[in-house]
Amino acid sequence: MSIYRPTPTDSFPTDTSVLQGETEETLSKHIPSPEYPAQPLNRNAHLQWLVRNMVQGFPTRYTSQDASQPWLMFWTLQSLSTLQAGLDSGNKQKAIDTIMSWQYPEGGFGGGPGQAPHLLATYASVCALANVGRPGPGGGWDEIDREKMYKFFLSVKQADGSFTVMRHGEVDVRGIYCLLVVATLLDLLTPELVAGTPAFLASCQTYEGGFSSSSQPYFSSGTLLSSPRPPLGEAHGGYTFCALASWVLIKSFQPPPYGVDIDVKRLLRWLVMMQGSEIELGGFKGRTNKLVDGCYSWWVGGAFALLEMLGMPAARTEAPTAHSDTDDEWDDVDGQSYPLRPSVVQYSTVPDTLFNRKALQEYVLYAGQHPTGGLRDKPPKTSDAYHTLGCLSGLASAQHHVTPSTRRREEITLLWESNTECAFTEQRKSAFIDALAWVEEEGASKYVGSSADRLNAMHPVFNLTMTHTDTMMGHFYQQTVPPRLMRRNV
Amino acid sequence: MDTPPALYAEDPAWADVVPIPQYEGVSPLAPIFYTPEYKDATDYFRGILKTGETSERVLELTERIIRMNPAHYTAWQYRYKTLLALGSNLEDELRLMDMYCIKYLKTYQVWHHRRLLVTLLLPAPSTSPSPSPSSNPNPTHLQTSNPTLALLQLQEELDFISRCLSADTKNYHTWSYRQWLLSYFNHPRLWRGEVKWVERLITEDVRNNSAWHHRFFVVFASGHGEKGEDAVREEIAYAKQKISLAPNNASVWNYLRGVLDHTHMPYSTLKSFVEPYTVEQEGRSEDVVDLEDPLPSAGAELPCALAIEFLADVHEQEGGVEAVRKAVELWKSLANEYDTIRKKYWEYRIREALATQQ
């Protein structure tokens, strides 16, 4: 029996509550006890697992992801970067050559050589190149055909401001997120490209507060009606992240007001409600009354940082009253203080998250790690490439506080050079500055185990490291990005 | 598959096609270990993509690839293109998809392919406001011209979706496909049965959030179900009754909040209903049957955190020092006792409410 209270079923069992109960029973066995002490991050096992997939290849069951080869590549490379590891130059070159073989002759990237261009594959390919590519011949970056890519983007644009993921493909906010990330990284954002997109995104917010996959437009003699515009599908963690991150990217390019808005208060409520209770180890769910799953550590856990770009202040634990509470609580976990990071002791004076970041770390560490390497949805499932990155990025977002910084913004602005002649230079500049203004706040990191579990902080919009984001955007915008201050050693 | 699949490489009927290996001149990082059958079929598919052939054998080839990997979106895309080029019978294709939708319930492509077919097979909606025709090639010769027949076909399609949902009650693709079908064709007769239909699913599992979302979609979001104040009252009564059955159910509380927000009704209208759910069972006086405000069932585990949250919102909306003080007390009880995982959020609500007051 667990020490934590099971989700109440009101003596009224249904399929949902039965499955929930079974899951809680499995999960609660992973709550550390004297018998099963708390696990640290098994860094070596994960690194070995990732490298094995990369070098030896993926087993036959991954055939189902043959049209998602860029994703397998991105999940693996990005997981390595999160773990503060990288490839040697020989394997980097192999990765670049593999990725470039997915570029479609008419623009965009496909899921493998010869496969049709697809927005999701394009995102994964470009973000994989952010990890391993470089400027110059053979480096991938300058071999991306940006002009044709832009044409591909425009060719899938719809009358309601949305995009289909490919020719004859479906519309959904994943595709829009993927397109906007790539367009932002590669300096392809234009007012033409994103016209009508904010209103489409807003129409996907459901009564619950989260976002659905898409919405149904109605037209009257060719004019798009603002209502009805019903969301298709219920509020969902993956779509919510994509819609919110898209909203943030568009905000920097097309400043509000759009004539529409999203309900941030209701969104925040939905996001916090997705966190499972103590008996579920505080993992996140993707929908109301569904099960926790490691991948939502990023889709939902990672979404909180984005709210700060919308002006929602970070939670601040008020000093000094809550000071001792907070630290005691954390010390209980491993019974040790943090001598190497004196700043952690001053926790009460730094921003805090609106979700339970300690619990999320526990979920990833205690339930998310597969004993033989890689991370997973939940026990007793096996690990896979997708859940490995979702769990690791989520863990990183629970460890660090990443926030838009006024000072960083000023530094970037100071070095900005007006180097193009276009009608939207100001928007272009603000997109660049907004994207690079995120910083990992000094002294605000916190670890359930020890700082040996530290992961790299992720860019909250792109899910790339800060360094990769800086370098890639600096290159494509031809701007000098000020170096980031070295983090104090831990 | 029953018989060992012949490789295209050994099939004389395919001797004229030049297979193209996946990677040429690249030694890929992170490759997938394919079966010989999959590798063979996709090598020939790449050969076909190069020549641009559209033929019956291409339909067979794409079907074989899809059976091995239903997420192969290029195979789907090319299959669609081929069907159109050959003027194939799309009814037959839809019947083939009946089987695939059930078998590959969780892939985007099966559902999207179905949507493309249905868009072509059935007449585009003529009622105003009409959905965007932008991505619809509208080859009218393929479509049913008889409106009654079209309605029957749509009803058949809804029945098919119902069967799929009984196998997987929360499948996201299936639900959004149903919602698309309803709103795209926008047939008044189709909307009519939806509330009754989804009610059955909610009765089967009152915690099925997909079903609750569908109800909201039909009654409010779609713009076709709302019938004035009576309908709103009915929905609120329905939600209350489901709360009394099993109060610790976030789906129904979210629905109730959704109805109130959508119709701009103050939360305080439900204050007397909510209060009994915020205290322990023992503390209640003997049950008096109140049809307006049903009391928690005997088995309910109280106090219910969702009810406490709701009551705190009632107080916050009321405003004023005393009301906010009450809200703060409730939030504290959530933070420290009834919903401790969200402690930071409840503390944030307290700070916000107090800040607004100053």
From TrEMBL, chain A:
Alphabetized InterPro entries for the sequence: FTB (IPR026872), PGGT1B-like (IPR045089), Prenyltrans (IPR001330), Terpenoid_cyclase/PrenylTrfase (IPR008930)
Stretches that traverse the bilayer: none
Cofactor mode of binding and number, as noted: Binds 1 zinc ion per subunit.
Disordered: annotated segments: 1-38
Gene3D superfamilies in UniProt: 1.50.10.20
Low complexity compositional bias, start-end: 1-17
Family membership noted in the UniProt record: Belongs to the protein prenyltransferase subunit beta family.
Subunit structure of this chain's protein: Heterodimer of an alpha and a beta subunit.
Name used for this protein in its record: Protein farnesyltransferase subunit beta
Species this protein is from: Heliocybe sulcata
Organism classification: Eukaryota, Fungi, Dikarya, Basidiomycota, Agaricomycotina
UniProtKB/TrEMBL annotation, chain B:
Cofactor: Mg(2+)
Pfam families named among the record's database cross-references: PPTA
Gene3D superfamilies: Protein prenylyltransferase
InterPro entries, A to Z: Prenyl_trans_a (IPR002088)
GO MF: CAAX-protein geranylgeranyltransferase activity; protein farnesyltransferase activity
Gene Ontology cellular-component annotations: CAAX-protein geranylgeranyltransferase complex; protein farnesyltransferase complex
Organism: Heliocybe sulcata
Domain of life: Eukaryota
Recorded family membership: Belongs to the protein prenyltransferase subunit alpha family.
Enzyme Commission number(s) from the entry: 2.5.1.58, 2.5.1.59
SUPFAM superfamilies from the UniProt entry: Protein prenylyltransferase
Name of the featured protein: Protein farnesyltransferase/geranylgeranyltransferase type-1 subunit alpha
This protein's UniProt keywords: Magnesium, Prenyltransferase, Repeat, Transferase
Top enzyme class: transferase
